[in-house]
Recover the amino acids of this structure.
């Protein structure tokens, strides 16, 4: 068994994917042969055909990089496919257009090792930032006081429990994929190959409902490369932005992927986590943010149908309901015993 696997889903990134892979390889270098990068590629065929020119073949031959091909584009199944193929005790999830913070991987792995005997350990999170923002814009969590979808919260200089956040996260691989005593991955979103939306909230909230916890780890942030503001987009291809010197970069988006319209995953996630009542509570914010993609009435019942099996699975196993989660705010009550100084 390897120590750590970095898993990456890729859709149409080439140059930025190569930057991400180099950054990942640098950060797992202390683990030698016990570290790996696992990529599940969702790219259009013409992009996939070029991929071999952007990832040095020697890394693949050495077993440092695995490249898997998934013929249909779906973020959630791609991440699960990568997790299934990974050999690491721990998996770390990052996007295909990121630069990892210095010692981020080491700090996450050390945190998990220190608490390996804790049966409530779910995800541990490094902060995320964006390449065009100052370091103090880094964030560890989401704030749920105004919206259950949550605006960005804070970055912490000490270990503490948090609500939820997207990648970069680390967890035990077996816990992530376990369908009985673990998380069961992305559940309905992967099962039905749902289009993008709601994945972070979905897998970030489930640990709390199942009796696990999410933690913030004080470390350097992983930097998201783009999208950059105030850059004209090519009207023929919204995934391509024209930069100042007239060249362009291709930025991976999953808005033309999976089953159903872009962002329908938010409706599915709401139903799985909190039933139709949660869907209704969050309808205004989903419409405000994503109404241009999603006609709610047209997809309401379909979202419930897609989420039905996982909702029943969750109801059989959860130790608290989503309403209890919001009311009791366990992320503010479970940190004192393990709060430590910043790294």
């Amino acid at each position: 068994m390897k120590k750590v696997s970095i898993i990456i889903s890729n859709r149409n990134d080439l140059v930025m994917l190569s930057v991400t892979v180099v950054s990942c390889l640098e950060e797992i270098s202390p683990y030698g042969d016990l570290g790996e990068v696992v990529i599940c590629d969702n790219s259009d065929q013409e992009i996939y055909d070029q991929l071999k020119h952007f990832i040095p073949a020697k890394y693949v031959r050495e077993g440092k990089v695995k490249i898997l091909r998934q013929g249909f584009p779906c973020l959630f199944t791609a991440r699960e496919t990568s997790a299934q193929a990974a050999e690491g005790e721990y998996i770390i999830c990052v996007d295909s257009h990121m630069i990892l913070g210095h010692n981020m991987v080491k700090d996450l792995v050390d945190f998990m090792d220190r608490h390996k005997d804790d049966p409530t350990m779910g995800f541990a999170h490094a902060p995320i930032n964006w390449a065009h923002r100052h370091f103090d814009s880094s964030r560890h969590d989401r704030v749920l006081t105004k919206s259950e979808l949550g605006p960005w919260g804070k970055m912490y200089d000490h270990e503490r429990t948090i609500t939820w956040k997207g990648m970069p996260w680390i967890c035990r691989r077996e816990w992530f994929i376990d369908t009985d005593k673990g998380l069961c991955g992305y559940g309905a979103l992967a099962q039905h190959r749902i289009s993008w939306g709601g994945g972070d909230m979905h897998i970030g909230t489930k640990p709390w409902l199942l009796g696990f916890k999410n933690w913030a780890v004080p470390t350097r942030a992983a930097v998201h490369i783009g999208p950059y503001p105030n850059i004209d987009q090519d009207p023929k291809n919204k995934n391509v932005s024209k930069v100042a010197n007239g060249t362009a970069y291709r930025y991976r988006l999953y808005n033309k992927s999976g089953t159903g319209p872009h962002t329908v995953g938010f409706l599915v996630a709401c139903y799985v986590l909190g039933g139709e009542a949660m869907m209704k509570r969050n309808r205004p914010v989903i419409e405000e943010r994503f109404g241009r993609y999603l006609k709610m009435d047209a997809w309401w019942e379909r979202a419930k149908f897609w989420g039905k099996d996982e909702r029943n699975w969750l109801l059989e196993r959860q130790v608290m309901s989503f309403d209890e989660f919001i009311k009791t705010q366990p992320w503010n009550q479970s940190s004192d015993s393990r709060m430590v100084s910043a790294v």
Observations:
- Residues 1-334 form a domain with the Spore Coat Polysaccharide Biosynthesis Protein SpsA; Chain A fold (CATH 3.90.550.10).
- Residues 244-248, 336-343 have pLDDT under 50 and may be disordered.
- Residues 264-290 form the longest helix (27 residues).
- The CA atoms of residues 16 and 176 lie 27 Å apart.
